[in-house]
Fold:
Amino acid sequence: MASRPADLLVATTNRGKAREIAAALASFPIRVLSLSDAGIDLSCPEKGKTFEANARTKAEFYSRRTGLPTLAEDSGLEIEALGGKPGVVSARYSGPGATDARNVSKVLRLLGPLPRAKRRARFVCAMALARDGRILETVRGTVRGTIGFAPRGSGGFGYDPIFYYHPFRKTFAELEPGEKNAVSHRGRALSAMIRRLPRFLHHS
Structure:
């Protein structure tokens, strides 16, 4: 008789992130649960100064409170000309009530007419896997590109419409989901984590 798929809690309320992670894990005997799937409305404060610190905090927090193996991530955009900002505050860069559109507009306004050579940026993703409040594994993925002069494309989320990926000559928002997942910061972190997942999910 086939074994029951292992449950894995993905600690995010961002639907775009949850969708990308679930798609990457679709071929594994894993039942991916989002926070809403698991009926969890607890909020974990993200006060870390690095992506890794925030990912670890969320993984520990939710795994301790649910008893489920928990995969958490923190990710964002770092722009050289802005001294690495928006960084860990990427999702709320434009202030209270921040939206993707407002965040994108702020970045474009701050960069102004800077030439492409001075618009270098990278997406960063840190992931942590925890069980019962204990970190089992951490990984990191990055991808480099430049910030465009105007949004392009209707796919993806966040800063994807202005993140230009030179090997494909497109923004992340112009890529098909499979194309993006193969090269993105989150896709690269997931690839590293996937190699480690099976031995943790079925054993304490």
Observations:
- The chain has a mean pLDDT of 91.
- The first helix runs from residue 15 to 24.
- The chain is about 30% helix and 25% strand.
- The helical segments are 15-24, 51-66, 100-111, 177-183, 185-194, 197-201.
